[in-house]
Amino acid sequence: MWYAHNPGRRALQLLGDGAALLWIALWAAAALAAHQLAQLASQPAQRRPRIPLLGSSVDGALRGVAHAGDRIVSAAPAPQGPAAAQALAVLGAVALFVIPVGLMLTVWLPRRIRWTRQAAAAQELASTEDGRELLALRALLRPLDELAATAELLPAAPGGTPDQDPDPGVDPDLDLDVPPDPGPGSLAKGWREADPVVLDALADAELQRLGLRA
């Protein structure tokens, strides 16, 4: 899969993908314009056509640049001048496209591929009981504030809280081994004891972190 189930996460992914495609398109257009300008400069002055989609002022400025290129090319040895200029024009256009697009892809593409692989693996693990235990273990390694938020979703343990009055019908010296109220520490205990409620809460939290449906 390439996009998350969560609407907010999916919108951010779509925005990032659109920005990446726009970046590629802009630099492709810039490289193409640079190559056309180089071709214009390599032609004789009387045969240079008007560049489409440009106004007369911009076209005149580019022609001035082309005339300057003529003087540079004419300064080179006659057999090598035009060919060398053409080769440099092609290399310059390729570099103008490859360098900025390559830098963007080294940052954007690995992150997208990594999320895609993690999301596919998480969905596969969520379909089995053992896989959900692995997802729960993964969720236990998240920052403490995220664990505390997950613990707040657990149901309160029976037996009351320390602020409540003790039941007069129960011997206070009797150890009932009542589990504590839900907290980050209870998540680790619940995972060790394979508590299905805790395992489901942790696994769902990991799926939601990836933007997937629990």
Notes on the structure:
68% of the residues lie in helices and 0% in strands. It contains seven helices and no strands. It starts with 6 loop residues before the first helix and ends in a 5-residue tail after the last helix.
Uncertain stretches: 157-164, 170-179
Task: Give the class from helix and strand content and strand pairing.
Answer: mainly alpha
The beta-strand count equals 0
Overall body shape: rod-shaped
Instruction: Report the biggest beta sheet as strand number plus sense, adding barrel if it closes.
Output: none
Mean pLDDT: 75
> Could you estimate the helical fraction of the residues in percent?
55-70%
How many DSSP helices?
A: 7
What are the secondary-structure elements, in order, as H or E? HHHHHHH
Radius of gyration: 33 Å
Strand content: under 5%
- The first-to-last residue Cα distance is 16 Å
Task: Provide a quick synopsis of the model.
The protein is mainly alpha-helical. Helices cover 68% and strands 0% of the residues.
